[in-house]
Amino acid sequence: MSVRGVLVRYGEAVALDGVDLAVHDGESVAIMGPSGSGKSTLLHAMAGIISPDEGTVTLRTRDGVRELGGLSDAARSALRLRAYGFVFQQGMLIPELTAAENVAMPLLLTGTGKSAAVRHATRLLEELGLAGLEGRRIGQLSGGQAQRVAIARARATDAQIVFADEPTGALDSRTASEVLDVLLAETTAQGRALVVVTHDEDVASRCSRVVRLKDGRIIGSDTR
Amino acid sequence: MSARDSANGRLSALWLLVRPARGDLATTALPVVAFAVISTVALGVVALAQAYWNAPDPEGFGQYRILAAGMLAVLVVPVGTLGAAAARLSARRREDRLATLRLMGASSSWVRGVALVEAALVAAAGALLGLLLYLPLTTLLSIIDVVGTPLGSVGAWLSLPLGAVLLLTVVLVAVVSAGASLRRVLISPLGVRLRESAPRMHWLRVVIAVLVVGVAVLVLQLTSVSWGAVGVTAALVVVLVAVMAVLNVLGPYLVGRLARRWLARSSDAGTLISMRGVLESPQAAWRQVSGVALAGFVAVPAGSVLGFLDTVQRLSDAVTTEQILFFGDIRLVVVAAVAVSFLLVACSVGVTQAAAVMERRALFVGLDRLGMPFSVMDRARHLSVSTPLLVAAIVPSLIAALLVAPVVGISVVTAPLFIVTVAGCIVAGVVLVQLGVVATAPVLRRVLTQPDRAL
């Protein structure tokens, strides 16, 4: 993925001011910075959730290079469904559904039959240490378990890039470390890219690169 | 993957999302019950209106048709308000979930489809329940005297096509309202809800209101029997619509002013929270009680006219049997319209309050964590309804009294009991509406005890 000269404005406020960034397969990139520095905006621009006012975001997919700005809303939705995975602070899981149904949802949206989708989801949950919890609703899971469900969902469609926004923000340090282990194992260890927005230095220290933002600009990039 | 497989997968996803969920029953039930009430009321009111519409009209003036049209017109606003509130509740409790689906990559048209199918299913379930509730009600309706004879079991029933059209209209109202309330989620996969300050309303609203009411008074003064049934009906409808439009312009302005004043004087947390909530959108606060405004606006002149007619009936030998029957029918229609309006508004307030608790879940949970007692939070909810309710109960009644001042004046002197009855009805309606808030206290308790669970 390549981000070039991205500028995003909210009214008169400039959230991102000419950001350049490249993310490669198998790489984990932590985006850090104070509140209001543009971290989440950058993640949303990379994920095609918002369109930048200037600059380009391009992604090399199995079908060729795609420039996100030139895609229709429907095409960006399809891209999120097939190429991206998301793990957010609250998981952004659907509380009325069971753990297995949550994981199966993107598969159902891509047209997989229900029994096959739930079977695949159950297998993924087992791999992530959630065997026996497939039938539980999200409210019946701990914070760490819910984040594992979100990670399993991100894996369900074999996403190229996983975006995580404060994935351990609501967890205690031990659970946070365990969730991060799983997240890295399910992404970079398998050749996928991981982009994490975080305030947590411990999380950032586990990533292969740390990008620091301030006032919408990149002020530093450390490769480990 | 074949197109058929793809369709099957999407249908499975659709079913997972729209099926009733355990633990979600309370908030699914609320809109279903609201749509059931609407359907029952609509069936009953239309059956009654149909009977009046088909009543014999030997003099050819069409007074019963005016009565039928008036009854339907008065109930359109509270029915519409409740329908929209129920559909909004049904859609809003899913907003976060739909935003998640958008983030995952579901297309906006698919997400819109999920929401609309769900709203239609909820409304259809309510309409069927309403039809079932209407069955025992037909027994009661059949003994009501219309033009001096009981309506009868045949009169209490609607024809199949008319009944079906009514129930389908209920579903349509739900679908349109749900679609309108989902626009924000469909714009952004994040479902971002930005708190914006409501624009301050201009005092010019008061000037417009005074002008329109002045013109309405003039029209009513000029209206005469010589205009015929169509002319009189048209004049009454124009005045009713114009004044209701004015009330919807003036009401939010007055609600905002009152809330700002109470906020400035508030010394307790409950008032502070409730008034801030009202000021966030005085229009929304007004909308939930606008049915009371219409009921008050109709009840005052109708009660006065009934009082006046009662006096005429007692003192004059010239009143015919047909006229006495007509007075009785007017009384029935007024009582039915006011009672049903208040019932619908009470349901509407209950549904709106349930939606408000869910939308402001984070606020209530945060206040609970701060140590705010449940009673204070509950009082804040009551205050947020009683502020617009006060305006809705008083201002339209005063405007109505101004419009038909001579009749009200005569009635106050000759038949004060009617005026007292009207005032009593309005007070009873206000209490009924507050009961709508009381009914949603369990929703707040549930949010506080299980803040992380879906409602």
From TrEMBL, chain B:
Intracellular or extracellular location(s): Cell membrane
Q: Which GO terms describe its cellular component?
A: plasma membrane
InterPro entries per record: ABC3_permease_C
Q: Where are the transmembrane segments?
A: 29-53, 65-89, 110-135, 155-182, 203-223, 229-255, 289-309, 329-351, 389-412, 418-444
Domain ABC3 transporter permease C-terminal stretches: 88-183
> What's the main place this protein lives?
membrane
Q: Which UniProt keywords apply?
A: Cell membrane, Membrane, Transmembrane, Transmembrane helix
Topology class, membrane? Multi-pass membrane protein
Protein name (record): Permease
Give the species this sequence originates from.
Answer: Herbiconiux oxytropis
